[in-house]
Design brief:
By secondary structure, the protein is of the alpha/beta class. It folds into 2 domains: about 180 residues, 3-Layer(aba) Sandwich (Rossmann fold); about 180 residues, Glycogen Phosphorylase B (Rossmann fold, 3-Layer(aba) Sandwich). Helices cover about 40% and strands about 20% of the residues. The protein contains 15 helices and 13 strands. The chain is globular and about 70 Å long. The chain starts with a strand and ends with a helix. The model has no long low-confidence stretch (mean pLDDT about 95).
Length: about 375
């Protein structure tokens, strides 16, 4: 089977600079090739990434790059025309995975020329172009019930499937020694209660909600709390945003470790150092990859009850009302005082729950089943 992925977002794949969508495409592609399928990934990305991408490990996946240098109308026309040329050059295909719906009609028209493949829109986020996928009558796969719903309830028909994100490799279960090592790395004492955050430092990700909640605690309640922040305004090498500057300024009031962008293969150390990992999103988060990563490491998660996040939480986690820092403050104090969700047994159970629901084997099997249907 020849599977084509189209990614036009500009962020590179392999995911050398991060990105949940990019990492998902990379890991799915690697696993499909491991199972004997041919995979082509056509990526429109910035010229500045060319040198690093050429050195990256492609793992038998055929990556075809369209390098772009601007966002002018001319550059967009060039991006589209060069991408279509690469699609035609690498034909025929059995399946095409679109990661935005914009191109659905184009590929529908190209279908007779490229092998009449099954065309799928893989929904990662809300898109104002969802109607294009509907008009083209292509197959639709959402990563959560929530993200399918926000793209239009009328998309729920026989062409829609739900396949969740992968619990990606590289997030081992915490051990006593790995916990000690991680805390040593971040200069955290044994008596500290560590709260973690990882992801984009942007308003919709809600980092300020954690600060507001901490401010509601008494001096005794917050004395031993340390906050670890891993992330940047976008991905690796992103410019510092005004929101990020405001967070850095405000962070001087807390016992805090600001790590900046952390490469994916190092991120498990953040989860291992944490007693509690908070996902404070204030927007309709489709899933939240950090939710899965933290639980894979056995770390207790408190997350906003919004979007697709609750669909990715084990029965051992805690939710709070999105944006409600008073509710979050109450939940933090409860977690500090209640160690029952931080035992070794519970850590193992939450990690097992994640693997059973979102393990690579299960998710890839569901994709292949859909491809062959």
């Amino acid at each position: 089977m020849h599977i084509l992925h189209i990614s036009m977002g500009g962020t590179p794949i392999p995911a050398i600079f991060g990105g949940a969508v990019q990492q998902t495409i990379e890991e799915l592609s690697n696993e499909f090739t491991n199972r004997g399928h041919k995979v082509t990934v056509i990526v429109a990305t910035k010229e500045i990434y060319k040198e690093e991408l050429e050195k990256s490990d492609k793992k038998n996946v055929n990556y075809e790059y369209v390098y772009i240098s601007g966002d002018t109308l001319f550059s967009w026309i060039k991006r589209i025309s060069l991408s279509i040329k690469k699609v035609i050059d690498n034909r025929p295909y059995d399946v095409i995975n679109l990661h935005v719906p914009h191109w659905a009609m184009i590929f529908k028209l190209l279908s007779p020329l490229i092998g009449k493949p099954k065309i799928i829109w893989h929904i990662h986020n809300c898109s104002k172009f969802a109607f294009v996928a509907k008009l083209a009558r292509i197959n639709i796969v959402g990563i959560s019930k929530s993200v399918i719903s926000v793209n239009g309830r009328d998309l729920f028909d026989k062409r829609v499937a739900l396949i969740p994100n992968i619990a990606r490799s590289g997030f081992p279960l915490v051990s006593e020694q790995s916990r000690i090592n991680a805390r040593k790395k971040f200069e955290i004492l044994e008596n500290h209660f560590v709260i973690g955050f990882a992801g984009r430092i942007s308003h919709e990700k809600g980092l300020h909600v954690i600060f507001e909640a901490i401010d509601k605690l008494t001096e005794d309640e917050k004395r031993d709390i340390v906050i670890i922040i891993a992330g940047s305004s976008w991905f690796k090498n992103a410019e510092i945003s005004e929101y990020e500057k405001s967070i850095y300024t405000r962070s001087k009031n807390y016992n805090i470790r600001i790590l900046g962008y952390v490469d994916n293969w190092e991120l498990y150390k953040v989860y291992h150092a944490c007693d509690l990992f908070i996902v404070p999103s204030t927007w309709e988060e489709p899933a939240g990859q950090v939710v899965v990563e933290a639980q894979s490491c056995g770390t207790h998660v408190i997350a906003s009850k919004i979007g697709g996040i609750p669909e990715y939480l084990s029965p051992f986690e805690t939710t709070f009302n999105a944006g409600d820092y008073n509710d979050l403050a109450v939940k933090i104090v409860r977690c500090v005082n209640d160690k029952s969700k931080r035992t070794t047994a519970i850590s193992e159970m939450r990690a097992n729950w994640i693997n059973e629901k979102f393990g690579l084997e299960k998710v890839v099997n569901n994709w292949l089943k859909l491809y062959k249907k």
